[in-house]
Amino acid sequence: MLGLGVDRLQADINRLLTSLFHQGVLDEQFLQLQQLQDETSPTFVYDVINIYFDESEKLLRSLRLLLMDREFSDYKKIGLHLNQLVGSSSSIGARRVRTVCVAFRSASELNNRPGCLRGLEVVEHEYHYLKNMMHELFQLEQQRLLAAGVRYPM
Amino acid sequence: MNWALNNPNPEEKEPTTTTQSSDFYHLGAKDSSQKPRKIDFWRSGLMGFAKMQHSVAVKMNNGNNNEQVGNKKGSTFIQEHRALLPKGLILWTIIVGFISRGIYQWMDDTSKVRREEVLVSMCDQRARMLQDQFSVSVNHVHALAILVSTFHYHKNPSAIDQVVNAEREMFESQHNWVIKTMDTGEPSPVRDEYAPVIFSQDSVSYLESLDMMSGEEDRENILRARETGKAVLTSPFRLLASHHLGVVLTFPVYKASLPKNPTVQERIAATAGYLGGAFDVESLVENLLGQLAGNQAIVVHVYDITNASDPLVMYGNQDEEGDTSLYHESKLDFGDPFRKHKMICRYLQKAPIPLNVLTTVPLFFAIGFLVGYILYGAAVHIVKVEDDFHEMQELKVRAEAADVAKSQFLATVSHEIRTPMNGILGMLAMLLDTELSSTQRDYAQTAQVCGKALIALINEVLDRAKIEAGKLELESVPFDIRSILDDVLSLFSEESRNKGIELAVFVSDKFTEKGHIFVKVHLAEQSKDGAESKPALNGGVASEDITAASKPSSYNTLSGYEAADGRNSWDSFKHLLSSEELLTSSEFEASSNVRLMVSIEDTGIGIPLTAQGRVFMPFMQADSSTSRTYGGTGIGLSISKCLVELMRGQISFVSRPRVGSTFWFTAVFERCDKCSLKKPTVENLPSSFRGMRAIVVDAKPVRAAVTRYHMKRLGISVDVMTSLRTAVSTASGRNGSPLPSGTTKLDMILVEKDSWISTEDIDAEIRQMNSRTNGNVHHKTPKLALFATNITNSEFDRAKSAGFADTVIMKPLRASMIGACLQQVLELRKARQQHPEGSSPATLKSLLTGKKILVVDDNMVNRRVAAGALKKFGAEVVCAESGQVALGLLQIPHSFDACFMDIQMPQMDGFEATRQIRMMEKEAKEKTKLEWHLPILAMTADVIHATYEECLKSGMDGYVSKPFEEENLYKSVAKSFKANPISDSSCSQS
After folding, report:
1. Would you tell me how many other CB atoms lie within 10 Å of the CB of residue A65?
2. What would be an example GO MF term here (chain A) (predicted)?
3. Were B976 and a residue from A44, B687, B865, B935 both cysteine, which residue would form a disulfide, CB within 3.0 to 4.6 Å?
């Protein structure tokens, strides 16, 4: 709050990012995304990620609905949804979500219902993990911005 | 940039240069965003490795324990009973002894039986013969008796008549002698009857007139004979005169009037006289035995056993005992039923022990004992060896455990150190960013350098441990040898420059064109006192054509210094330079494998002969002073060796102390035939120099060749001149001599610093030439450039004054660097726009600034990202979330300069949308005669070739892979914009 923890916060952010890269949750695309952020669009990453979460939330919801339906057979629709999810995930560099989505998609192409259900669960798990991590990251970022914003007259 | 080994981190290949990695990345034009990922990957790999090693070690320990237990259980029978071994030997000896004894007994018995048999047969034989002989004699006597009795019929008194006392006188007077007794020879005393000998053989004539009745034996015999009427024998007695033992056979002669079946009285009465035969048994038997062989071997006794309790000896010396243990009795029947005789035979000598027994038994015993001893010895040996073996195994297990523990320790400790070290380094970096006094800064920087060195060391240790543990696997990726070598040079450029050392790369043209595979790398390190230092790098064919040894004063290496393997390098280098010598590489064509040989030569202290054997051992340095003087851990070469072996190659070296060393290694690579991989292997070099000409001034041909090689890669054709003066005069055309190859254009003169320094008074000429050409705006002005390893300020000033001002190219030479420098000199920067080989945000920005771009994507996130990326480059972005919307926006006339189209969209996909757009454009053209062509770039996540073709088919101009990569994006955009200049212009007009 007093602007003394900027470096510490930055270090925390870096550590968090590093661990995310380690785990393969994120890939370099995320860094590219960060590079796109500049003075003209200071909240670019935040915006994009938020859009991603909104969209993905919708997609996941409809996927769950589709799969919960007992007489369900519309694998094509699932495939479309998953394509969307894969595309947006790779755009933001959410590598692990993307990977599990691809697995899910191949299960849906085989009309493998149990595989799809399992895939959905995995995807949801990864998605929520990513969301939590991102949430934490943004919080840190916000704190850092706050801290960095504090200026003391010399 | 492609590596032959897909090392997660380039440091792995050149572990000693971690601190320069950043340099490396930049020069390699690597996307900086990739760096963290690589490092992350590297780290995670290490963590995984450390963990894995731990579990492996535990497993090994378990295994060892089991093994040990197994060994104890598995100790052999012999070992368990080792205490019994001597006892066993003794027992065995005893058994052998008993067996030998048994054998002796058996053989002895056998021989005894045989001996007895022989004795029996001999004895029987003798008895029979004696008996026969005797009966023959008896028969003779009998015949004589009959003869005598026949005579008797006609005489009275009969000549053989028994004489009764009454008739004695008449008898005596008739015969004219008196009857004498046998004992004394005196005239016989008066007796009832007499039996004087009337007839006798001449040999026994002394018997005549003796009264046979006077002898006890004879009298009894006579009486018995006349009673029985048969021949009777006396018991043996000493014969008269001869004193030999003998018997007398008496045969009665009866008067004719003998009734049938006469009684004893009748017989006595009828007796007319007697016939007696004396048998000298002794001589008889002796005579008989004399006729038989082997008579000496046995002793024969003949006994009269009529009185069983008192056998009388008939023959044989009673003292002569012979072998009393064995005898044989044979019955003798001399025809007198009243008398019984027997013969006893003995061997004269005791039975000798047979020879075969004498030899066999000791031999058997000896052999048996020896066999036993051998077995004992073997068992003892086995026990010893097994003991040793177990001891060794235990030691081995311990050694292995120690090794595992060592590796584990190294890995763990290294890993544990790295973690805090990262913190330390990070903090130091931050500290350096704060305001520090110069002393503080110095301290902090020192600490940082040390920390980095420590990390580098740990990385090396980990590399080594990883390679040792076999965890390192190679991946095949295509690469370009020239770029790789350039990168390697760049890693060392700063160090070498500081030391006054220079590096250069030379790869034979044949390498790619002819598939040639030997590359020699020459690095000539200048010794400390040398004023100039040159690196030399040779690519060479390995065929040997050794010419005369170079003289010590001028070595044919790049630096002019002697090299350890100098002749070889020069020869091979020459070989490589001579382009006529084309290498027939049929093997190469045949197999997809390429063997690459790289040799690195330097000058310097060399490696002491004593230390050469352990150069490749980890943590070994030539000697301890080496590490003090030059630093390092001595692990680099062992890692190199591991890597080379992984790549199925060999590594070795030649070193001469105080001259230098030549290291070489070979490695086997696969040939890359795929067309798709061809592109990346093309060198990423500026092409703006194509067709240019240059003169390189260098007195040293090898170095000049290296320079030429780099220039050639840039497309510049080079003439080499050895003298700067000639070059200047050629360039200025003062002496009117034509250019070497008769070309009209000379673009630059590149001068080696040595040549320039050594040529006095040339500055003025250069200046003159420069000033002349400076005034001339003509294109043909040759630019001057200077090559130098290091340059002092004064030299730099001189160079500036001479006209080299902006063109000192620092070695080591790299094609890309030369290119950059020359671009600067030749002011080709503007031209670069037309040849946008390099990509940078700046150029992309220039390309996209002010352009209006439509992004069509159903995915909001993608849309947003793409828009963000394009906006960053200055483009104005409009988004559309579906193909229909896009079509609506693109109704002609529109103001878009380009369109990025997602392929996979619901309802209308990218291909369809593009087709419709193209159709609209066509219609518009027909209507308005205005040509519309909107560059449409596909955005796709999967960049399969087929997809690309389909893109083109549906009328798109290119594609960019999603997610956007700057370079990729730039290329596509540049291409499509260039391909449609009309559209561009029309767009900008509209």
Report:
1. 10
2. protein histidine kinase binding
3. B935
Query: Which residue ranges make up each domain of chain A?
Result: 1-147
Q: What is the pLDDT of residues B652-666, one digit of tens each?
A: 888 777 777 777 777
Distance of CA B954 to the CA centre of its chain: 65
- pLDDT at residue B313, rounded to an integer: 78
* Residue B251, Ramachandran bin (φ over 0: left; ψ between -120 and 50: alpha; else beta): beta
CB contact under 8 A, A91 and B963: yes
Pair B279, B248: CB distance under 8 Å = yes
With a pLDDT cut of 70, the percent of chain B lying above it is 59
Specify the DSSP class assigned to residue B609: G
Chain A positions touching chain B (beta carbons under 8 Å): 7, 11, 18, 21-22, 27-29, 31-33, 35-38, 40-41, 44, 47-48, 51-52, 54-55, 80, 83-84, 86-88, 90-93
Phi and psi torsions of B607, nearest 5°? -115, 130
Nearest CA distance, B18 vs chain A (angstrom): 20
Reported as type and span, the H/E element at residue B164 is strand B163-164
The answer for residues whose C-beta is within 8 angstroms of residue B907's C-beta and 6 or more apart is B882, B883, B884
**Rounded CA gap, B100 and B365, in Å?**
6
Which strand ranges, in their side-by-side order, compose the sheet holding B936-940? B876-880, B852-856, B898-902, B936-940, B958-961
Vertex B40 angle, CA B618 and B680, to 5°:
90
- In whole angstroms, what separates CA B99 from the centre of its chain? 50
Alpha helices by DSSP H, B83-192: 84-152, 168-175
Q: Tens digits of per-residue pLDDT, B844-898?
A: 666 677 778 888 887 777 777 777 777 777 778 888 888 888 888 887 777 788 8
Nearest residue of chain A to residue B44 (CA atoms): A22
Residues of B in contact with A19 (CB under 8 A): none
Q: How far apart are CA B14 and CA B5, in angstroms?
A: 12
Give the span between the Cα atoms of B685 and B835, in whole angstroms. Answer: 11
Structure tokens at A41: 């669009």
The amino acid present at B635, given as its one-letter code, is I
Residue B930, CA distances (Å) to B853, B916, B955 in order: 21, 18, 18
Measured CA distances, B603 to B525, B555, B654, B789, B893 (Å): 5, 12, 12, 16, 72
Can you tell me the distance from the alpha carbon of B512 to that of B746, in angstroms, rounded to the nearest whole number?
29
Q: Do A86 and B941 touch (CB under 8 A)?
A: yes
Contact A88 B859 (CB under 8 A): yes
Q: Which two tokens stand for residue B936?
A: 């449409």
Q: What is the ipTM of this complex?
A: 0.76
User: Nearest chain A Cα to B939, which residue?
Assistant: A87
Under the banding of pLDDT at 50, 70 and 90, the label for residue B388 is very high
Query: How many residues does the structure list for chain B?
Result: 990
Cis peptide upstream of residue B935 (ω within 30 degrees of 0): no
Assign B391 a pLDDT band (cuts: 50, 70, 90). Answer: very high
A101/A86 Cα distance (integer angstroms): 6
pLDDT at B963: 59
- The answer on pLDDT for B982 being more than 60 is no
Cα B843 to chain center, whole Å? 62
- For residue B936, which of B923, B922, B917, B950 has the smallest C-alpha distance? B917
| Span B438-469, pLDDT tens digits | 888 888 888 888 888 888 777 777 777 666 66
Are the beta carbons of B616 and B527 closer than 8 angstroms?
no
Candidate from A33, A40, A87 with C-beta closest to B859: A87
Q: Which CATH code for domain A1-147?
A: 1.20.120.160
Q: Among A16, A26, A32, A106, which would you mutate to test the B interface (most chain B Cβ atoms within 10 Å of its Cβ)?
A: A32
For residues A26 and A98, is the Cβ–Cβ distance under 8 A?
no
What is the amino acid identity at position B786? L
